[in-house]
């Protein structure tokens, strides 16, 4: 599981046009594109791409994209 | 494993009744136009019928039952059992099924039970009542199912206000040794139940003067909802909803050798469009076989499966043999799937109370 790959999929789910503008240290809740609907898209993306179920608390307790990636990785 | 095979029970008719008042999501005051379009696009909900003037879920079910009984031609004294599934009872006591039994003027020789269940409620109610009937003594039964859920909601709760509507449904069941069995699977994940919980005001956490004032303030829309208040954890419910329902329906098909390609209608609890589409995709089911009534009615909790059936497919159900697979999921957290076959059942158009 590569973080670069995860960031690309994250960008697509959240509808960030330029994935290069994101990095592992991006605080995703600060993004203009972030919303409660974007959160659902990320949950759906993780389910579809990694077959892993993340919950509300996993999103709430993550600040950076890397935090979220680590949650997914731990559950893999 | 919680599988059930219930022989000898036919679903003879289904009806649904909604209150007359309509709330347009575009009229909700706290959204900008851009926001509301996004919400409508992802939830699929443009408007909902919501109760007013003291109408309750049992009123809606009563009307649904009266019209169904009339169309089906059953005398009231031929009904041996009635069950009412709700999360919004009329009174603290007695169970609301007795209110309905009285207003429907059913015989005293009749079994009456209430089931307190959320969104999986119609399927759970069907499993419970049909199981009682399959013994053979109870020949005819009514399954009433519905909530006035919007009465319990906070108008300033951004997550639930655009989603939920009210509806009451009636399902007529008859003992019939010639029909194919009803097939069920159900499951429970109570550990995550906290994502759909309302704690205050019952017997574990009775209201204090302070919490009661706050509750009334939130219910009337004067007080905003804080993160510490019990509201839906939409993210957790969503991740649960796209995971367990397809798994459960696939387990049901595997257990009873059902071929998904032979299913005519996939009736998914009308949670929201995003979830329904994800579940349909996981079931590899073409959306043309997945009825949705979200646009005009929203998420009507446990009534949503029978409402979607009535609102979108009443003509097909009343004139054809149809093989249906349905799954309800939510509060508990719990889920329940059912496979059922019907032929020319009585299915009147959606009733406006």
Question: What is the string of SSEs of chain B from the N terminus onward?
Answer: EEEHEHEHEHEEEHHHEHHHEEE
Strand content of chain A: under 5%
The number of distinct β-strands of chain A equals: 0
Number of helices of chain A: 4
Runs of chain A in which pLDDT lies below 50 for 5 or more consecutive residues are none
Determine the strand fraction of chain B and express it as a percent band: 15-25%
The main sheet of chain A comes to:
none
Calculate the mean pLDDT score of chain B and round it.
96
The proportion of residues forming helix of chain B, as a percent range, comes to 25-40%
Protein described:
The complex is a heterodimer of chains A (76) and B (353). Chain A has 76 residues and is mainly α. Chain A contains four helices and no strands. Chain A has helices at residues 3-14, 36-50, 56-60, 65-75. In chain A, helix 1 crosses helix 2. The longest helix of chain A has 15 residues, at 36-50. Chain B is of the alpha/beta class. Chain B is built from ten helices and 13 strands. Chain B has a six-stranded mixed β-sheet with strand order 6-5-7-8-2-13, with helices on both faces. In chain B, a hairpin with a 3-residue loop joins strand 11 (321-330) and strand 12 (334-343). In chain B, helix 2 (57-72) packs across helix 3. At the A-B interface, helix 2 and helix 3 of A face helix 1 and helix 6 of B.
């Amino acid at each position: 599981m590569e973080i670069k790959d995860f960031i690309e999929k994250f960008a697509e789910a959240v509808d960030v046009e330029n994935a290069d503008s994101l990095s592992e240290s991006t605080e995703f809740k600060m993004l203009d594109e972030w919303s409660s609907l974007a959160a659902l898209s990320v949950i759906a993306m993780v389910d579809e791409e990694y077959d892993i179920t993340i919950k509300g608390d996993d999103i709430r307790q993550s600040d950076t994209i890397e935090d979220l990636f680590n949650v997914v990785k731990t559950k893999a | 494993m919680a599988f059930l095979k219930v022989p000898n029970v036919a679903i003879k008719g289904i009806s649904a009744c909604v209150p007359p008042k309509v709330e347009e999501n575009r009229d909700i005051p706290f959204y900008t136009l851009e926001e509301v379009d996004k919400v409508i696009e992802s939830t699929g909900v443009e408007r909902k019928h919501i109760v007013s003037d003291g109408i309750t879920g049992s009123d809606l079910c009563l009307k649904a039952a009266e019209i169904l009984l009339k169309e089906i031609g059953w005398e009231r004294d031929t009904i041996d059992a009635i069950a009412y599934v709700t999360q919004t009872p009329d009174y603290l006591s007695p169970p609301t099924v007795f209110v309905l039994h009285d207003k429907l003027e059913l015989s005293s020789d009749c079994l009456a039970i209430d089931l307190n269940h959320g969104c999986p409620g119609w399927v759970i109610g069907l499993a419970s009542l049909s199981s009682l009937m399959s013994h053979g003594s109870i020949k005819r039964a009514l399954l009433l199912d519905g909530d006035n859920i919007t009465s319990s909601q906070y108008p300033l709760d951004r997550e639930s206000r655009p989603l939920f509507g009210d509806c009451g449904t009636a399902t007529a069941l008859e003992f019939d040794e010639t029909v194919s069995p009803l097939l069920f699977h159900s499951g429970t994940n109570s550990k995550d139940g906290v994502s759909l919980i309302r704690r205050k005001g019952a017997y574990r956490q009775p209201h204090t003067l302070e919490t009661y004032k706050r509750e009334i303030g939130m219910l009337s829309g004067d007080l905003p909802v804080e993160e510490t208040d019990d509201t839906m954890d939409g993210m957790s419910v969503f991740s649960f909803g796209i995971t367990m329902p397809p798994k459960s329906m696939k387990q049901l098909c595997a257990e009873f050798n059902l071929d998904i390609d032979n299913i005519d209608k996939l009736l998914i609890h009308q949670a929201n469009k995003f979830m329904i589409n994800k579940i349909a995709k996981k079931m590899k089911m073409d959306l043309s076989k997945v009825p949705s009534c979200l646009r005009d009615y929203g998420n009507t909790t446990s009534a949503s499966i029978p409402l979607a059936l009535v609102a979108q497919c009443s003509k097909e159900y009343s004139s054809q043999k149809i093989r249906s697979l349905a799954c309800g999921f939510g509060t508990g957290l719990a889920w329940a799937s059912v496979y059922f076959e019907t032929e020319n059942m009585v299915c009147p158009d959606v009733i406006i109370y």
